[in-house]
Each structure stands twice: as C-alpha cells, then as structure tokens.
Amino acid sequence: MNILEQYGMDYREGIVERGNLRRLKKCMVRASEGEKLTIGFIGGSITQGSLSSSPQTCYAYRVFQWWEKAFPGTGFTYVNAGVGGTTSQFGVARVQDDLLRHSPDFVVVEFSVNDEAEAHFAETYEGLIRRIYGSGSRPAVLLVHNVRYDNGVNAEEQHRAVGKAYGLPSISMKPVIYRKVEEGELQAREITPDDLHPNDKGHALAAAVICGFLEEVYKEKEAEDEGEDRGGELPVPVTPNAYENSVRYQNDTYEAECLGFEKEVKNGTENDERNFRKGWTASNINDKIVFKIKGTGIAVQYRKSVRKPAPVARVIVDGREGDARILDGNFDEDWGDCLYIDTVAECLENKIHTVEITIVESKEVAVPFYLVSVIGSQ
For 235-306, where are the E strands, in sequence order? Predict the structure, then answer.
C-alpha cells in the first residue's frame, strides 16, 4: 500500500489536464534506451525543499528518484532551481542561468502558491513557460499546483489557463490532498506546520500524486499521443506576454553608475550566496545608483531584512518623480530575509530607460540596503 492509499487518496484526481504527452513519452522512450537525461525543477520554497528534513526528502528529489527507479540503466542529472519566496516574475528572469543552461529534458514548474491569482502573474508565468518550452533542449514540461492548506488559495486557475494553451499536463494538489484536509479526514498539521510548506509526509504525498501520473504515462509510453507535435513552434501568447525576454542585471554583467553604492562580494552561508549575491549595497542617505536599461517594464529586486532597522530607498524611472516608488529594506515577517521583487514601471515604450535608486532613510542601521538586481522586461 503506497502513501496515497493509506489516506484514501487517488492520484488520478490530481490530473487536472492531461495535455499533449508527446514530449513526455518521447523522453521516457529515450530513457528506456539508456540515454542520459537531465530532470529539472523550478519554483519557490516548496520546490527548494523548505521544511523537508533533508534535500532528499523533498517532493522534487522524490520525483527525480522515480525516474531513477523506472529506468535503472539510465544516468540522470538532478537540477533543483527552486528559490524560496520568489514568483514566476523572478523565475523567467533567472531560468536561463538556473535551469536552461543545463539543457533539461523534463521540467516541473511550480509557482502556484507564490504567484497571486491575478493577470500580472498569468503574464509572467506565460513568459516563463515560453522560455522553457521553446528552449533548445525541447523539454517535456509538467505543471504542478501546490495549495495553501488553511484556505485553499493558489494561482492555479490562471496557471492552468496558460498551460492549457500550450497543451501541457497539469497536476493539482487541491482535489487530492487539500480536499482531505477540507473534509476533515486529514489534519493539516500532519503534513504542514505552517499551512504552506510540507513536512516530509506532505512532500511524500505531493510526490506520490506526481509519480502516479508519471507511472500512468510510463505504461503507455510506446503508444502514439493524439496531441499535435509542434516541435519548436510556440502558439500565439494568451497574455500580452511582456516578460518572456526579461533580462536580469547584476554587478557581474552590468556596470552601473555608482554614487555611494558599492559592489557586494558575498561571503555568507550557502543559502545567502544563492539569494543575495552579485548585487550592490549602500547605507548612507543620498547614496545613489543609476541604470540605463531597455524594456517595456522595470522591476527592482532587493533584500527585505528581519535585522532592523534597514535603509529605505526610492526609485525613479526616467525622472518621473511623481511616479517614484519606495523600496523599504525592513521586513515585517520573522522567517528570515526576503528576496523581494517590486515592479516599478510597466507598459513603457520599448527603449532605453533611466532607473535611479537613492537611499532616503538611514539611521543606526543594522544592515545596509542590498540591491540584488534590476530586471528589464520586453
């Protein structure tokens, strides 16, 4: 009896879209022939493995292990590009460096509890899907929708609409695991301590839903799928699609005009190195940094810190002081420093724009203001 059966669950209830399975079946056929494959994951903290007891007990690694067990004669590479507290808007800007450079053959995308259920994130999510699905390795893509276990909230509806337009299979935890919690047959604290991040049992349940679907496809991998094989051709976007070609600017790829800001050389923990690196720092009022960036949208990524007080900055695009935005380096939560992204301008003319960030509040600070990157989208 597997873990789903123990709780009276059926993985098939989680298959909300079967999609076009041509790529996935071809991937499995290649694996059965002994071809070495790369299995990739991109998402937020759940994909990263937050609150699992080890990297090997998170749902992503358990899904990777399914591939190893299903095809014992094949060598697989595991790439986990999950980053906690981040959305698909950041995902599309980093996907090349964090995932696509590894030429993945199969990719799980998981952002449904990080993105808000609104049009903006449907658009950033579509940009991410287009980058992955249209990439050179032509990976099979599986969409996974996790859920909050206190209220059932996620961005699944928006994400599924995008996935359906691309014929992508889609797995949801809402009609399987969350339904048992909602009906009182499973206590949320058995599977999550905070109603969001799964513990080992929660990760195991989520992995079992995904692996059940993969096992089903495995049994029919030799059968021709009815879906159309588009090859590298992508369908017409279903959103304005202003984020597909997002570019992330950091201190190793861009020489900003620094008037008080300094390049950061990070020597922190491994997690800090991954989240807060290649940026710029400043602590004094009127310290300024200036970027010249092409795009139709501008986002600023910076650290919100639990170590207070932290400086507060202001960002102005193209000198429009009336549209200035405040970037507050102080974080109101207590779970740790947040890699925060703030969209400061959208629907701009696609040309070079001037982005000025200035420290406007700084008194007896505990940590400097940390500017991680500026992102231009188009």
Answer: 247-249, 257-259, 262-263, 280-282, 288-295, 297-304
